[in-house]
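Exercise 7. Predict the joint structure of the components listed below.
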Amino acid sequence: MVKLQTDGRKARGEKRRAELIAATLRIIERDGVAGVTHRTVAAEAGVPTTSTTYHFSSLDDLLVATLISCARDMATEVYWMIDRARSRGSRGAEEVAGLLAEALGPRRGRTMAEYELYLLAARKPELRPAARRWLDVLTSMVRHDDEVAFRVFLAGIDGLLIQGLIDDEPPSAEELRPVVDYLLKPR
Amino acid sequence: MVKLQTDGRKARGEKRRAELIAATLRIIERDGVAGVTHRTVAAEAGVPTTSTTYHFSSLDDLLVATLISCARDMATEVYWMIDRARSRGSRGAEEVAGLLAEALGPRRGRTMAEYELYLLAARKPELRPAARRWLDVLTSMVRHDDEVAFRVFLAGIDGLLIQGLIDDEPPSAEELRPVVDYLLKPR
DNA sequence: TTTGTTTCGGGACGATCGTTCCGGTAGTTT
DNA sequence: AAACTACCGGAACGATCGTCCCGAAACAAA
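Solution:
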């Protein structure tokens, strides 16, 4: 007979697995990938040290799972963001500038974590599909009659974010606005 | 009396210091910042472990010194690059596309190391001036009648580089050429 | 209940880490 | 020559690391 109800043990296991991934992401946001160890993750999640080795075959596996999960979240976030902006009939530039300011302000830690994914993906080929996913989501959702202009737009966003991360204080949406405007202006 | 000749001991010390920095950079290019330890650096440089702690008060100091040195090299490199291109009467776009392809191909490790500096600078404020230096060099050297267009150009370069790092194989100068062209086109 | 499976968690092992100590050496100054 | 300074490098300390072992507990199937 086919089992429809999920195993209670496996359900708990999956839940803890997810908690460990969430704890790892919090640590990366706070201290970077360098701060991730079995013990710090376990402490952050409030579980014993061995829990990480049980649910993830190695520390590297934990990192990979965390960054893949992070990338997936980011992709769905981008999806809803576009959907929301579209239904609102947003002008685009204003929306984008606001999101950039948010990514460099309140969500700064998360943004740093995401770019650590980028760099980790540069060294670990298995992470590259995950790292590319949010680019793919954008590419598939946004109408781009001009392929080159769209690539320039994506590169510009990345550049503004990574340059904004080393500013002493995060730029405001108003400061970013003219740059985004120029970036979106057709030529 | 004023001492003009440098102390032979200090000269040797400075030389070894530079060798340690160079060894650290090689390790970052190969294994990333995560691979940098007192012992790996010492082994790479062919000196005893204690040498790193003598010349640098801590491992963090070694990292900071390395990344500042790396950033300074990059800045002077950019300086000469612009100078060379200018004297040759280069068209710009072709030059830039070639340099991007080189950064993502033969010099890929170095490029990754440079972006690890960026991310480290995002977390360590003392590194930010060094991380911004190559941007400053470009800003001071290149004539930019349009401030916004120049910022977009710089952001686009960064974005193309960091996105090129997660490609499965590095893009060629020919592939990058139209994007750079669009990036430089006035509007 | 009995048997089997999955998760849990305390404890520990060996490796590696950053750092310190300290005697030895080379170079400079008096 | 002697005194002083700066660099060198072997050895080791305590801390922390990733990972493994193994019995207990929770749960499912028989």
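Discussion. Residues 3 and 10 of chain A are 13 Å apart (CA to CA).
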